[in-house]
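User: Hi! I have a protein structure encoded as tokens and I'd like to know what sequence might fold into it. I'm fairly new to this, so please keep things simple.
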């Protein structure tokens, strides 16, 4: 049944597997991305159905712009959680901040356009000349700071019920460390399921809430929440200061996500043993990811990013046909039209969210450390120490001391925004730059926000 071999392993041609097996493989890819993708709207207050819809549509757009060659799925990006928390934090009762979510979405939409700019730079100047401005000494500490600045929200959620939170944590760790086959690919989803079931069993309030939420939801509805979309601002009245604040707070986060994207494309290339960096090229993959992010954000969905979980599924199944990924995207679109399904996810216990996000936020910071270590950043070099120190202290210090730095009455910058800008500027002006981007699976591209 195998079409060829890579090393000692067979690689399967999806056309020879037949339609039923291709459908099953597509479902597997959908479930692989599902746990992480739906967690982002839960943590930000965005709509789950809208998220699934634009994960599917964004993936299809990406495949169109990359000539259908790259087997990548686009799901929700965790890198922008700090931006959402700064611009549109959840209200005290845990409900969405509908007044500010459209402004946060506008900032993310603008961040998506940064991909388009970088895509044009790659096309015009080549990879090495562009990437020298975004070395690991800048992106690594930024990623570390993202996880640390989010840590307090995870602890607050865990406080709702530490037993349920600990069960979620142990389940994620257990399956991630010792799981076999598909279970190892979806530890976040399994952590949510196990702790969710436990909460329903031991907590009558959770049981009642779940039953009521699912019973009151419709079987079918359009998966768009107009109040969360950027377009709603033009109906309700736009505060220009809030727009500018959202842009300056959220756009710098795209510096880390663009490097994440480059790392994921390198990893997919390595898995499939095809050079997607050259064909269709980084300029096309960045364009697809960026436009998918902008489109999703305009309609009130989270930013999209290429998903490492699905790269794991590629390695597991040995089926690299991009059509299987497109089947998964279609499944995500279909599921988004079922509000009962979204209601079941929305009723998830706070402690479950806390337990899963505690692991996730910690791993974001750990990935930043890994990024610095694997790239062998020289901390005997004074310039590198200064850059890393200022990024970490500014991002964390500003976040916990004052929240944001007020520029004017309506314009403020988050700690992450200030730290990112300072890090990029210092790296550009301080002497002693020795970083050179190398297209390989590990090393200069090692950025991955997934478990």
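Assistant: Happy to help. Inverse folding works backwards from shape to sequence: for each of the 451 positions I chose a residue that suits the local structure. Here it is:
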């Amino acid at each position: 049944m195998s079409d060829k071999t890579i090393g000692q392993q067979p690689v399967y041609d999806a056309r020879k597997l037949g339609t039923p097996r291709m459908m099953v493989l597509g479902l597997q890819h959908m479930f692989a991305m599902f746990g992480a993708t739906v967690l982002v709207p839960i943590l930000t207050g965005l709509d789950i159905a809208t998220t699934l819809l634009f994960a599917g549509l964004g993936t299809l757009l990406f495949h169109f712009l990359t000539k259908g060659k790259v087997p990548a799925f686009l799901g929700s990006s965790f890198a922008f959680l700090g931006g959402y928390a700064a611009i549109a934090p959840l209200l005290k009762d845990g409900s969405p901040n509908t007044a500010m979510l459209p402004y946060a979405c506008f900032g993310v939409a603008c961040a998506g356009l940064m991909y388009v700019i970088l895509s044009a730079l790659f096309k015009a100047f080549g990879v090495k000349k562009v990437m020298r401005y975004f070395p690991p000494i800048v992106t690594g500490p930024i990623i570390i700071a993202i996880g640390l600045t989010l840590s307090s929200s995870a602890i607050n959620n865990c406080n709702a019920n530490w037993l349920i939170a600990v069960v979620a944590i142990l389940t994620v760790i257990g399956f991630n460390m010792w799981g076999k086959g598909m279970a190892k690919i979806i530890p976040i989803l399994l952590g949510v399921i196990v702790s969710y079931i436990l909460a329903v069993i031991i907590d009558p309030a959770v049981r009642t809430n779940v039953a009521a939420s699912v019973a009151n939801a419709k079987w079918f509805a359009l998966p768009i929440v107009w109040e969360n979309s950027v377009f709603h601002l033009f109906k309700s009245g736009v505060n220009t200061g809030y727009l500018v604040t959202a842009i300056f707070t959220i756009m710098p986060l795209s510096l880390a996500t663009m490097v994440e994207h480059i790392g994921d494309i390198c990893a997919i290339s390595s898995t499939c043993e095809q050079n997607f960096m050259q064909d269709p090229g980084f300029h096309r993959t960045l364009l697809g990811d960026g436009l998918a992010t902008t489109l999703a954000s305009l309609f009130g969905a989270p930013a999209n990013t290429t998903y490492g979980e699905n790269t794991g599924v590629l390695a597991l199944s040995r089926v690299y046909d991009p059509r299987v990924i497109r089947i998964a995207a279609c499944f995500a679109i279909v599921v988004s039209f079922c509000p009962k399904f979204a209601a079941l996810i929305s009723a998830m216990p706070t402690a479950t969210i806390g337990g899963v996000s505690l692991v996730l936020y910690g791993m974001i910071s750990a990935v930043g450390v890994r990024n610095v270590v694997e790239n062998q950043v020289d901390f005997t070099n004074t310039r590198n120490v200064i850059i890393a120190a200022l990024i970490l202290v500014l991002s964390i210090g500003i976040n916990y001391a004052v929240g944001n730095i007020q520029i004017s009455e309506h314009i403020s910058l988050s700690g992450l925004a200030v730290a990112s800008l300072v890090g990029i500027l210092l790296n550009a002006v301080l002497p002693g730059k020795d970083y050179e981007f190398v297209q390989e699976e590990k090393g200069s591209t090692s950025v991955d926000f997934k478990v």
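A useful reference point when you look it over: The longest helix spans residues 19-44. Feel free to ask if any position seems puzzling.
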